[in-house]
Amino acid sequence: MSLTCPFPREMPSRTKLVATLGPASDSEEMLAKLILAGVSVFRFNFSHGSEAEHEARLNRLRLVAERLQATVAALGDLQGPKIRVAKVPGDGIRLRVGQDVAFRRGVAEAFVDEQGCAVFGTTYEGLIDEVRTGQRVLINDGAIRMLAVQSETPRLPDGSRPERRCRVTVGGLVTSGKGINLPESDVKAPSLTERDEGWVRFAADRGFDYLALSFVRTGDDVRALKRLLDSLGRGEGADRIPVIAKIEKPQAVMNIDAIAQTAHGLMVARGDLGVEMDIARTPVAQRLILEAARRYGRPAIVATQMLESMIESVMPTRAEASDVATAIFSGASAVMLSGETAVGRHPDLVVETMRRIALESEAFHASRSLVEPVIPEALDPARHRQAALAHSAWHLARTMKVKAVACWSQTGGMARNLSRAEMTAPILAYTSDARWARRIALLSNVSPVLAEPPPSGYLSDWTDQVEADLMDFGWVDPGDQVLLIAGKPLGAPQTTSAMAVLEIGNKATGFRAHDQ
Hints:
Layout: E1 16-20, H1 28-37, E2 39-45, H2 51-68, E3 73-77, E4 93-95, E5 100-104, E6 111-112, E7 118-120, H3 127-130, E8 136-139, E9 144-148, E10 163-170, E11 172-174, E12 180-181, H4 194-205, E13 210-213, H5 219-231, E14 243-247, H6 250-254, H7 256-262, E15 265-269, H8 270-276, H9 282-295, E16 300-303, H10 318-329, E17 334-337, H11 339-342, H12 347-368, H13 385-400, E18 404-408, H14 413-420, E19 427-431, H15 434-440, E20 446-450, H16 459-473, E21 481-487, E22 496-503
Helix pairs in contact: 1-2, 1-12, 5-7, 10-12, 13-14
């Protein structure tokens, strides 16, 4: 037996905890604290830092995880086509309500012309043609707002506009590099930029477990990244890097079904989403995204400002605690911390606080929920044996009041199906492939166990291993029932075919009679 996770006697939360790495969580000591506090997935924000810095972080994380015998995943978050204001001189240019603003081609440094119009350059000049009259243009996460107005400037010989004229409705100070949001415009910029392609190659070379794609609007955006991964040999099989689609554009919410069918998972990226659409619509959008994830059996991460006040404070606000609970009640597979762990004062305390909120919320939700799980549309049990087994396992686990479920899931398929089944009992997913063990770490209510199959290959010997592990973790007591799901031979992919019930301490139960 070669386990890779010394589980605490306290039960881990069903909802997975994602923590963003940064200066506050760079040290080996802090990484160890975060893993022991309950982090299953670590986010690497490729918008900041060099390849050398991220490689050093990844090496530290893997070193600490190996030292703790822990299985944690590394998620690389691609920046996407960030649209920003170009260089602004001095301390910036302050805009006032009613002032005219022009985004002009070829402007290296912003200035105010003789008529009082503030003229800016931008990192994406396509906005000049793609923003229509009457559409909103937002700067600095929506703190500064303006509307596009008719411009009398004649078009260039090729028919394009030399500038896009706007009028300020909410003023403020504009400095170099501030972000620009175009919530109502049909922006043609590709989700995958040349810069992102370099980071994809970096992630592929270093074995990242997931990639998060920004600026997704349609399923085609996800397919573009998957094609690149195919070309790098990381699109299929055991070497595959699953793609998480970040939903941060109104167009993505409108196309959520097509995106959910194409991506391996979804992220509710509430930062840009809250800027791009009416703030009153953001909670509705979150619910729609989580429902789509459940419909198609995809893990879903809720991100941004979950415990924001804990960047400085030792306690979250009541509203933040309720926000985490609401995400869990709505079906989130994972909740994510950003600045709280990247630059906050006490990252490990934030993670422990989120874990405690998750455990309380899950216990309440489990006590109220007797609804049979929805079979994902893409996994019709009549055509997918593992989906049918997972559906049956939900009924058996509830009827038998099992304390835990254990499956052998070599490439994560059975683990994904059991996670989708929304059982109240915790799930152990065994595999001998370290890559799949790390990917399983994102699945709600599933704890990966990296182990070699018993030398004999007998299911009964694996039954003994499961019983010893659960007793060692402190999850079961003699007489408790455990549901076992596996196939023969152990360790081979896509062989799951049988279920059995193990009574802890009773050597006659489990797969004892099914070895030959």
